[in-house]
Design brief:
7 helices
Length: about 160
């Protein structure tokens, strides 16, 4: 197994099946209704839908990054400003994006892992490992929000 396949396997474990630390994104999404997805657990907190849409945005940025399409500049004020995508459509788009990103990782040329990511000052390997970590981070947030909303619902 080469390094790209290892990164793709780690991404699959986080998003589909095999995470050692708890539920994957897919396992979490299976528990979430459209109503729960759009409820904030506290004033000013992100909803599950917003968190998943953020993950989708970054999946697409990374999947589409190439020499001819550099990674867009990060702008904090625009990061969470995207128009909301309806839940069922969002989940479908996430699943498709997830599959396409895993495929890109798996087929990425090993010899290019050390090359600089266009639009950034770090190599592709750092970016690809980063999206795995980013997904774990926000997956944990999704799990926490789901837990908080389930506790409120149970009262």
């Amino acid at each position: 197994m080469n390094r790209c396949e290892e990164i793709a396997d780690a991404y699959r474990a986080v998003t589909v099946k095999g995470a050692w630390y708890g539920p994957t994104i897919a396992e979490l999404l299976a528990k979430i209704s459209p109503e729960l997805a759009t409820k904030a657990p506290a004033p000013g907190a992100h909803t599950i839908s917003e968190l998943l849409q953020h993950l989708l945005l970054w999946n697409e940025r990374i999947r589409n990054t190439s020499d001819s399409n550099p990674m867009p500049k990060w702008e904090a004020e625009r990061e969470w400003a995207e128009a909301a995508i309806p839940w069922n459509e969002l989940v479908a788009r996430w699943n498709k994006s997830r599959d396409l990103l895993e495929e890109r990782m798996r087929n990425f040329p090993v010899g290019d892992l050390g090359k600089q990511t266009p639009g950034r000052n770090y190599p592709y390997e750092f970016m690809l490992n980063g999206i795995v970590q980013h997904t774990i981070y926000h997956g944990g947030q999704i799990a926490m929000v789901l837990s908080m909303l389930s506790m409120v619902k149970g009262k």
